[in-house]
């Protein structure tokens, strides 16, 4: 039986968009393709069992997903003999693979705009690492999947020789993300009560443009006691920079920084928020936009890369670096109940079109086209 290995090492205690992509493959592929066998690579702190399906085997790999061991020596540290197809799910293609490889390239920021990226290592090393891994993926993958048509077009503009090897597999939304007015106020520590909430979700990397979120909020609601800005992000030194910026803008008392929350808590936050503000400079996809819409939360986002595609006309768009335009869009949503209600209904309709099972099915089509089975 044909064996497909999928690298699932983003599935773990810390929520991430790539982890949700991998989880969708784990949840749906085994029963969609009973004629295939699957080998899932997982991290040491992953759940004990990812899938109970009879056509699945799982192996713990001690090396981190984005590590030198993964990049250059994965076939030495993971038993890949007998694998007919390898799916590299997080942008980089490991060296030394003897079987065809499908690589999911979520975006090419490390190639096109490395100044927008951040990582655990010094920036020059991080840039070399990802540039090398993504470059190998583009040069040697049998097929490349990506999560939006915007990312596909960016890939083809970067390297026109990829034509015919790049396929869009749009993500879905977990069923737990739903609109439920009965949920009430979130019990997340630090969530302000009695306010209309502008919510921003995501890691505090330069491409997320959280500084732009502060500027737009200050222009829209600075000095208003009834509106607060809440960041849900991994707190680090960059968060302290944002705190200082909020102080300088005169909105420090209105801005609240929360650490990461699990999906159950995030659902309550989306449901309670007046609007999601997502002013990114670039997104391969942007799962918070889709999840917010599914929870009935209107969205204001920047008008570039994949964000217009994800919103599908259900949100308001503004130039990422135009704080005044972003502020005007925020005021429309927060201060006009008719606009907010219309956006809520449009967002729910758009979210209903997004399915993780369709994502897995599209990915399976790519596998079969490479394997010709």
Secondary-structure map with pairings?
Blueprint: E1 3-7, H1 17-32, E2 37-42, E3 56-60, H2 68-77, E4 85-88, E5 101-104, H3 109-112, H4 123-140, E6 143-146, H5 149-158, E7 166-168, E8 196-201, H6 210-221, E9 227-232, H7 237-249, E10 255-258, H8 263-272, E11 275-278, H9 287-294, E12 299-302, H10 307-311, E13 316-318, H11 323-335, H12 337-351, H13 356-371
Parallel strand pairs: 1-2, 1-4, 2-3, 4-5, 5-6, 6-7, 8-9, 8-11, 9-10, 11-12, 12-13
Helix pairs in contact: 1-13, 6-7, 6-11, 9-12, 11-12
Question: In short, what is this structure?
Answer:
By secondary structure, the chain is an alpha/beta fold. Helices cover 40% and strands 16% of the residues.
Verbal overview:
The protein has 373 residues and is an alpha/beta fold. It has two domains: 3-172 and 355-371, 3-Layer(aba) Sandwich (Rossmann fold), CATH 3.40.50.2000; 181-351, 3-Layer(aba) Sandwich (Rossmann fold). Helix content is 40%, strand content 16%. The protein has 13 helices and 13 strands. The chain has a seven-stranded parallel beta sheet, with helices on both faces. The protein has a six-stranded parallel beta sheet with strand order 10-9-8-11-12-13, with helices on both faces. Helix 1 (17-32) crosses helix 13 (356-371). The longest helix is centred in the middle third of the chain and has 18 residues, at 123-140.
């Amino acid at each position: 039986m044909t064996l497909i290995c999928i690298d699932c090492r983003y599935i773990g205690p810390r929520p991430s968009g790539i982890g949700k992509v991998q989880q969708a493959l784990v949840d749906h592929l085994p029963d969609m393709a009973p004629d295939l066998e699957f080998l899932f690579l997982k991290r040491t702190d992953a759940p004990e069992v990812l899938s109970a399906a009879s056509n699945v085997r799982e192996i713990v790999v001690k090396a981190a997903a984005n590590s030198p061991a993964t990049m250059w020596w994965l076939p030495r540290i993971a038993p890949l003999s007998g694998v007919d197809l390898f799916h590299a799910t997080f942008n980089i293609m490991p060296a030394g693979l003897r079987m065809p490889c499908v690589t999911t390239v979520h975006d090419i920021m490390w190639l096109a705009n490395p100044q927008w990226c951040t990582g655990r290592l010094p920036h020059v090393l991080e840039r070399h690492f990802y540039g090398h891994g993504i470059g190998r993926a583009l040069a040697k993958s049998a097929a490349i999947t990506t999560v939006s048509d915007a990312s596909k077009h960016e890939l083809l503009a970067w390297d026109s020789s990829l034509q015919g090897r790049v396929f869009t597999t749009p993500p879905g939304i977990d069923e737990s993300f739903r609109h439920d007015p009965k949920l009430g106020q979130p019990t997340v520590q630090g969530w302000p009560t009695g306010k209309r909430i502008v919510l921003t979700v995501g890691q505090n990397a330069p491409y997320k443009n959280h500084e732009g979120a502060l500027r737009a909020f200050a222009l829209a609601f600075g000095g208003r006691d009834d509106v607060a800005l809440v960041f849900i992000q991994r707190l680090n030194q960059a968060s302290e920079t944002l705190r200082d910026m909020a102080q300088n803008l005169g909105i420090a008392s209105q801005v609240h920084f929360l650490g990461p929350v699990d999906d159950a808590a995030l659902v309550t936050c989306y449901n309670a928020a007046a609007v999601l503000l997502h002013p990114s400079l670039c997104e391969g996809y942007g799962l918070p936009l889709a999840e917010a819409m599914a929870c009935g939360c209107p969205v204001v986002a920047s008008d570039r890369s994949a964000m217009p595609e994800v919103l599908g006309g259900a949100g308001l768009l503004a130039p990422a670096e135009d704080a005044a335009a972003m502020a005007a869009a925020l005021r429309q949503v927060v201060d006009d109940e008719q606009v907010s209600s219309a956006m809520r209904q449009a967002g729910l309709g758009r979210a209903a079109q997004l399915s993780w099972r369709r994502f897995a099915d599209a990915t399976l089509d790519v596998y079969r086209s490479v394997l010709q089975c």
